[in-house]
Amino acid sequence: MKVLVSVKRAIDYNVRIQIKPDGSGVVENGVKHSMNPFDEIAVEQAMRWKEAGTAEEVVAVTIGPDAAKEQLRSALAFGCDRAIHIKTDEPVQPLTAARVFEAIAQKEEPKVFMMGKQAIDDDSNQTGQMTSALLEWPQATFASEIELSGETAKVTREIDAGLETIEVDLPAVITADLRLNEPRYLKLPDIMKAKKKPIEDMSLDDLGVEAAARLETLKTTPPPTREAGVRVESVDELVAKLKEKGLV
C-alpha cells in the first residue's frame, strides 16, 4: 500500500508573530519556519504504518518556494521513501493546493492521502476536504485514531459532541488531529540520510494547475491589547464584580 502525505512550510509555532507595518500580512523574512505541526502528526502516522508493514511506500509532497525543501528533508528524515516538491513562489490558497494534490494523487495512486487537519498559519481547514471532493474519494477528517484493514479504514474523529467512529473505503483522504500520535524526535543519522534521498521537482504548469487567488486579504491587524485586570481583596468582592458585569 502506498501512502501520500502532505507537508507544509509554516512559521514555527514558537515564533511570536509580527504584523507588517502596512498591514499587508505577517513578517516572514528572517523568521524561523518548520513543518506544520499537524503535518508532522500525519507523517508520523504514515511512518508507523510502514514500520508495521501496512504501508510499502510513503511519499511526501509539498507546495512552495525552494526553502520548502527543508521541510521535505524533515519528512525524509522521518523515513519517507520519496519526496515531491511543487515549486512556486506565489501564495498558495486551499483550492489551489487541493487541485495540485488531486493531480499528484492521480499520478501516484495512493491508498491513503494523509494530511494535517489544518495549517497553523492560516487555519483554513479546507484543503483535505477540497482534495477529497475533487478526487471523489471518501474523507475522514479530525482523526484521533485510525485502523486500516484491507480496503477500508476505521477512523475515530474528534467532533464538537465528543468522538465519532466511521468506516470509509480506500482510497481515501484522512486528516490528522492533535491526539492521533506524538511525532518522534529526529536523530542526526536520520537527518544525514535524508540528504541523499531523492526529491522530485515539479511546477504548477507541469500539473496543469493555475495559481488563481480566490480570496483577497484586505488587511491584517494584531489582536487588541488586553486591558489590565483588577485585583480584588475577597471572594465577596469578586462575586460583586462579576455581578456588575452580568457574568453571574
UniProtKB/TrEMBL annotation:
Q: Which organism is it from?
A: Salinisphaera orenii MK-B5
Domain of life, source organism: Bacteria
| Subunit relationships | Heterodimer of an alpha and a beta subunit.
What does the record give as the function of this protein? Answer: The electron transfer flavoprotein serves as a specific electron acceptor for other dehydrogenases. It transfers the electrons to the main respiratory chain via ETF-ubiquinone oxidoreductase (ETF dehydrogenase).
Give the keywords, sorted.
Answer: Electron transport, Transport
The taxonomic lineage of its organism, from the top, reads:
Bacteria, Pseudomonadati, Pseudomonadota, Gammaproteobacteria, Salinisphaerales
Return the protein name.
Answer: Electron transfer flavoprotein subunit beta
PANTHER family per record: ELECTRON TRANSFER FLAVOPROTEIN BETA-SUBUNIT, ELECTRON TRANSFER FLAVOPROTEIN SUBUNIT BETA
GO molecular function list: electron transfer activity
Say which family it is in. Answer: Belongs to the ETF beta-subunit/FixA family.
Which InterPro entries does the protein's record reference?
ETF_a/b_N (IPR014730), ETF_b (IPR012255), ETF_beta_N (IPR033948), Rossmann-like_a/b/a_fold (IPR014729)
